[in-house]
Every structure is written in C-alpha cells, then in structure tokens.
Amino acid sequence: MIKQLTNLRRIGRIKWLSVLLAIAGGLLFVGVSIIPAIAQTQGDLTIDFATTQPGVQSMSGFLYGVEQDEPPDHLIEPLQPRLWRTSRLNLYPRLTGFGATFQLLLSDTWGYGRPRGWPYDDYTRWENHVRNLAREHKGKKMLWDIWNEPDLRDPFWHGTRQQFFETYKRAYRVLREELGPDVIIGGPSITKYDKGFLTAFLNYCRDNNLEVNSLSWHELNDQTINAIAPHIRDANQSFRQNPAYRSLKIQRLDVNEIIGPTAQYRPAENLAYLYYTEQGGASAAAKACWEPKGGGPNNCFNKSLDGLVQPGPFAPRAVWWVYKAYSDGFSTRVRTQGNNPRVIGLASQSNGQNQAQVLFGYFEQGPSARQATVTLTLRNLQQLGLGQPGQPLNLTISRIPDSGEAVVKDLAIVKRQQITVTNQIVRLTVPNIRIHEAYILTIG
Fold first, then answer.
1. What CATH number matches the domain at 33-51+331-443, 2.60.40.1180, 3.30.1360.40, 2.60.200.30, 2.60.40.10?
2. What's the confidence (pLDDT) of residue 31?
3. Per-residue pLDDT tens over the stretch 17-57
4. In what order do the strands lie in the sheet with 333-338?
5. pTM exceeds cut of 0.70
6. CA 440 to chain centroid
7. How far apart are CA 180 and CA 171, in angstroms?
8. In whole angstroms, what is the distance from residue 104 CA to residue 254 CA?
9. Transmembrane region positions (predicted)?
10. Among 259, 262, 266, CA closest to 61
C-alpha cells in the first residue's frame, strides 16, 4: 500500500503542479511586456511587545514525512508539531508523543482504485473497512479525515461529486455508530478553497443529518499565499459561525496541506504560509510534501520531514530553521503590523531562551523586486524585563538562506548590535534582504 501511495502521490502532485505552473505561467506571460523589473522594495514592520496575541494556534504540522525512528527526535521536538496527517497508524505513539494531534487520512488506508476499487463500487465493503479500523483503534484519540482531494479526478477520485458525498455519509455513520458522539470527523480536504464545493458538501451533510466537525481544504498555490487568511476568515463567517450550519457542529478549520512545490524549500515563502494561515485563525495546518529536486522518493516517504531535513544523515535544511523559530515563539506572540504584504513578520516576547524574537522575511508574490529594505520599529521593549535597568541589550540578526536542499547546520549572524533603551521605541533598518530569505532578530 505504501508503494502505491508513493506512486499515486507523485502522480497527483505532478498533475497538481502542472495546473499551478500553468496558472503562474499565464500570469507571467501577461506581465512580461507591461511590468518593468523592480530592483528594490521597502517594507516596514511595527512590533508592540506589550500587546500580546492570546489564543494563537500553532501552524506547525506535517504530512507523513517520518518512520518509526527517523528522522531522530532531536530534529522533530524543537518544531513542536500540532497536527500530523498520515495513514500510518503504527506511528501513533511516536507522533502523539511530540504533542501532535493525529489526523488519520482514511482514504489512504483504502487506496485509490486499486486493489479494492472505489468506495462507490461496493459501499458495503467500504463500510466494513471503516468499521474494522474504528474497532481496532477505538482507544486512540484522533481526527478522522475521510478522503483526500476528491476534487482532483486523477488520481484521487474517479467518481462524481455526489458519489463522494455518499462515501462521506457512509463513513460518517459507521464512525459515529462505533466511536460515539465525541469523535471528530471531517473533510472534504479539497485541493483549494473552493467555496462552491464546500457549500454543496455542507448542504448535503446538513440535509442528511451528518456533522463536519473538522472543515478542511488545502492551500498550495505559491502565487496566492496572501489569500489564505481571507479564505479562512470567509470559511469561519460563511460556515462555522453561520446559524444555517449549526447542526454540522463545525469545531475546527484545518488547512491540512500548505506550501506548494515552488515554495517548498524557500524560507520566506514557508514563513508566509505559516503567517497567513495563523493570521486567518485556522485551527491547524500541515506542510505538504513534493518531489525532491533531483528525483527519487517523494518527500512524504523519504524520511525528510516533508523536505525540512536531509534524508540519511538527517541534518537540517534552511526551512527547518524557519519552523524552529516559528515554534519557538508562537506561545508568546505579540502584535506585528506591516505595510507590505510580501514583507511579513511574527514577533514574540520570548523564544524560550529569555530572548525576545522577530522572525521576518521577504517572499515572492507576482512581479517582485530582488531585494527589500526592512525597517523594524520595536515598541515597549522596556516591558519585556530583559537584562538589568540601564544595561544595554544585545540585538542579533541571523540569516536563513534560500539554499534549497543544502544542509544548514548553523545560521550565519549578519548583524550584532548593543542598544540602551532610553525610550519606548527602537528603530532598526535591515537593508538588502534577498527575496525568498528569512531572518531572525533576537533581543536579550
């Protein structure tokens, strides 16, 4: 089954990649003759260390990416994963041990056309499969994700939309019967935020007395990253908070695959996905996995943690450092405001080492300058209680390079500075930030 999943996910990702590239190529073709090259851009980030952001949910999460012992724990624990989407039930103890919510990808336990056929070929057989799994794993606390990308005909769904709805209904009723009223069941885990599909799905569920406790979809278009937050807010308003759908008992909005193929190794783009998904108010997210640049097994199945680490020697790549810094700071998030949607930042009162932190970067979205100058305005540093009164604070900026699959064992420090805080505002200008790169400012 795993070999089949590897091949199917490769086919599915290639086909989905071709769609994304066609969209991006069309945009570039239209823009070639009318948009001049942009050499430099400017972005301002204002951080108020006195204004906390309570209730922030971490978007650190993964799709497959590991085996029983690899990658080693010391490369996973610092990332503090909150969601793990997989069909590998034998990994349940390890993944939940990291603090992650286990999301069972039910369709991967069944297969896509072979060897069992499709659920609509024999609904009774599908129900029996779901029932057997539910009984075998009744004691495990997990989210049940019924089917993967039913809007992508090849390879994940060959039936009609109505047949998918029926497939969900059959699985839902079995799970509710076997596991009771508290088990979290969800979907439809479609390839993008398609409001028409979601509306039709939820209307069907409402009309058939079904629940959708976890409403899920994927965000994989690297050219529309900043649309993610509006999508989540729209889903919250249109569905989760809409009295018309109260009977569905929607508890969660899970973007259970984020980050497309072009962005998979780019630090700033990874940060942008985390930023906009968090800002939208999603319950959780999981990093998607794609083909390595040189070919070989999909990053879902080569023990690379979805591409964050090098397989084999198990050493971190640049994007691993983005996830680490993101996870270091999410529990003490403070307000950050910016004036350029491509220049994004997430700030925290503490990174766990008694240092305030700002994680920021400059990512590509349409025609973009190759570099940016970023001005950081730091407010209310005195309220952090760092150091002794009257003593200087140490500011350190480290660069997370756009280095693809290369190993990055340590981050290069690009600036060190001591400041004495004499008022409530400190301004710091960071010039020549390269597109796709991210930076970490620590204050302590």
1. 2.60.40.1180
2. 33
3. 544 544 344 333 233 333 345 678 999 999 999 999 999 99
4. 412-419, 393-400, 438-443, 356-362, 343-348, 333-338, 40-52, 371-379, 425-434
5. yes
6. 20
7. 13
8. 13
9. 16-39
10. 259
